[in-house]
Amino acid sequence: KAANILLDEEFEAVVGDFGLAKLMDYKDTHVTTAVRGTIGHIAPEYLSTGKSSEKTDVFGYGIMLLELIT
């Protein structure tokens, strides 16, 4: 979400708040036991299936851009 995009002293964007991030072995599945995140920023397919993909990242990026321009 837009609140997690920070600017450094040269006004370069830096992502903050990795509260839900974790490193995983590429052999592990991406299935989680619970859907987590900020309501309104969660992709509909992630809400319904609990599985994330590149599409869920694109959805979140789109929501963040919408917040920035409105």
From TrEMBL:
All residue ranges annotated as the Protein kinase domain in the record: 1-70
Gene3D superfamilies: Transferase(Phosphotransferase) domain 1 (1.10.510.10)
InterPro entries in alphabetical order: CR_Ser/Thr_kinase, Kinase-like_dom_sf, Prot_kinase_dom
Keywords: ATP-binding, Kinase, Nucleotide-binding, Receptor, Transferase
Domain of life according to the entry: Eukaryota
Statement: the UniProt record of this protein carries the keyword S-adenosyl-L-methionine: no
GO MF terms held by the record: ATP binding; protein kinase activity
SUPFAM superfamilies (alphabetical): Protein kinase-like (PK-like)
Designated name of the protein: Somatic embryogenesis receptor kinase 2-like
Provenance organism: Trifolium medium
